[in-house]
Amino acid sequence: MKTTTQASVLALAAASALTAGPAAAWTLEEAAAPYAGTEIEVLFLDRPGYAAAIEMLPEFEAATGITVNYTTVPYENALGEQVRDFVAGGDLDIALIDLVWIGNFAENGWIVPIETFTSDPALADPDLDMADFFPLVVDAFGSWNGVTYGLPFDNYSGLLFYNRCMLEEAGFTEPPATWQEVMDTYGPALTKDGRYAFALQSKRNETQSADSFARFLWPFGGSFLNAEFRSNLNSPESQAGLQFRQDLMAFMPEGIVAYDHAEVVNALAQGDVAFITEWSAFYSTLKDPETSTIVDCLGVAPEPEGPAGRKPALGGFSLAVASQADEAEQAAAWLFIQWVTSKANAGRYLELGGVPARQSAYADPALAERFTFIPALVESWQEGVPEFRPRFAEWPTITEIVQEYGTRMMLGEVTVEEGARAIGERMEAVLEEAGYYDGRKPLAQ
Asked: CA 248, 250, 256 angle in degrees (round to 5)?
């Protein structure tokens, strides 16, 4: 790990404080002065939100003298690389945390609560304004067991993307508002002449377990677990949602179980299906004439409601300070995280291709007119469940179980009831071995 002489850092901080005076307004430049020359390390992904942050980096580095070294990795490698680095006491100073990783990172002590920095007047931007973040997003991506560790960064929601022209040709003036409307009205009217009403990404991997299976649990009142951390998959509500998914396949393309995100987005983009429920990040693909034939017909709305309301899929990340970093690196890391997720930068981040979690950015009418997914995204973040996928360390094991039996359900190899029972039994075995039932671990997800 890199080292910085603590004494020199403290001396510089004291000198800066004397120069600034007690009544001076907080500035990033003065806050960063003691840490000029510090280098911090972070992993980024090859996605638009990270490209946006990279484009903004020179401004931060020029203002602070802090160098942000980033390594771009595929999403599939990001968890393993960070875990290995933290276990070995490596070089990473910032943790990039997916929704389902935060329990693992927090319980292992790899990340620092933000209170460490927000309680320090020298480091805390008075305009941080935590209340400006969407509460659901802070809770889901940045918090664990009542403690906030990270600030939301590059966040997504599940949205309904639809071909307005196809709907109008079938006599519809609006997209479906409820899943029952999809089943009873939109599905039959739009599935004809080799085209289909709906495509649900369901390929066997996290796409099956999260984007397909979980998507039909929550809106119907179901869940993976009950309050005692026992399987809730055979409850009437969970069974209703999973059976609904099964019945809805009548209005999806043949072979839908092999469709990943790319195939589903392409099916809409080429006019083969009327609507899909996909991540907000795919808006740019569907609005690009080079990748979409429906640019002028594209509509965006919140995901349909179920009997339990609208419970959209949640995806994205937070950035948190790594506990293995030394004092100067931690301070420098916090200043970067605070800056890149700030209110002041949210509009620019959005324009460059990122998806900020700042309510104030989406209140700008000019941006809402330019990025037509904004109203639907804002509405989707009003209500949801942080544990859309359980956020504890055992999820990677459980998702393997869910994707196996979720796929078998859709293929008709097992009934919905049989598949749910098999998942529940195996899921509970994983949780028992992990220590949730004997009190070694808190019932937190």
From this structure: 85
The kind and range of the H/E element at 299 are strand 298-302
Amino acid at 443: L
End-of-domain residue from the set 380, 404, 420: 380
The two structure tokens encoding residue 81: 């690389």
Q: What is the DSSP string of 172-236?
A: -SS--SBHHHIIIIIHHHH-BTTBEEEE----TTHIIIIIIIGGGTGGGT--SB-TTS-B-TTSH
Q: Give yes or no: residues 175 and 305 share one domain.
A: yes
Q: Tens digit of pLDDT for each residue in 139-169?
A: 999 999 999 999 999 998 999 999 999 999 9
Question: What per-residue confidence (pLDDT) applies to 411?
Answer: 97
Same domain, 213 and 305: yes
99 phi/psi in degrees, rounded to 5: -45, -45
Stated pTM of the model: 0.83
pLDDT beneath 70, residues of the chain:
1-24
Query: In this structure, are 124 and 92 located in the same domain?
Result: yes
CA dist 385 and 387 (Å) reads 5
Helix axes 327-340, 343-351, angle to 10 degrees: 60
